[in-house]
Amino acid sequence: METHNDNSVAIRVNQVTRTFGEVSALGGVSFSIAKNSICGLLGSNGAGKTTLMALIAGHDRPTSGEVTVLGQTPFESAEVAAATSFIRDNQRFPDDYKLKHVLRIAKEFHANWDAEFANQLVAEFRIPAKTQVKKFSRGQLSALSIVIAMAARAPITIFDEPYLGLDVASRHRFYELLMQDYAAHPRTIIVSTHLVGEMEALFDHAVILELGKVVLDSPIEDLSGVAYRVSGRTENVRMFTGSKNVLSTRELGAMSVSVIQEPLNEGAKALAELDGLVIEPVSLQDLVGALGSQSASDNNNGVAA
């Protein structure tokens, strides 16, 4: 088994491709995730996120390139499997299983399993004990998956849209519990989500995929140096953005809002203010949407992604 030592990095992805027949799901993807951090893996539907998570978890292997997890190649690695909890958005269990069966199996697969915490979470999310899992609602299945992933306390924990079917109050309780447990038991967590606005405060780092390629790889604290929003009268916004890298523009009557992908310098800021424009930091949610719009536009226009 190939091993790579770097004590600060939990996951490294280097020039990874994954093709399925004629379809390219990932094309030359590279990034790394630090140990004991929370990474948002973001992007549009079909961007390649689930494929990438399966590679990291060792459920699949790349067509080319290299993935390492805790210094090891994850595919068919018993060590990586034991250190990883990957909960898919469509996680399935045997038809005759009830809650007790799922928790019993989860304990066998996870060395750090905390049964007391699992029971606390079961009560928190009101998961029924006597109902067969196959009869669970979408929200109950999501809650059960959350229980497994959190109580496992695996060094690598991967959530794929973990909240489907949960109401707003339950989602926010999940975020609160996740951060509390992460503070007490640090580990490397990857979360794939479309609810970026709800979850971005949890992230240390964001990787955004579009059309199988990384379009942004940045610590959250550095986003202000990546892009910004400009808003004001449409004609003034157009003049200001004329030579800049505009990711997206929304026109609302006589007003427009554009997301610009470049650092904001003081000269440009002063010019914008003279024209009555408002310059604001871009939120992660706005940036994900803008990069998705640009990738879709480039793809429709035949531009290589």
UniProtKB/TrEMBL annotation:
Coiled-coil annotated spans: none
Keywords from the named record: ATP-binding, Nucleotide-binding
Gene3D superfamilies from the UniProt entry: P-loop containing nucleotide triphosphate hydrolases (3.40.50.300)
InterPro entries membership: AAA+_ATPase (IPR003593), ABC_transporter-like_ATP-bd (IPR003439), P-loop_NTPase (IPR027417)
Pfam families xrefs: ABC_tran
UniProt GO molecular function: ATP binding; ATP hydrolysis activity
Domain ABC transporter: 11-236
Listed name of the protein: ABC transporter ATP-binding protein
Organism from which the protein derives: Jonesiaceae bacterium BS-20
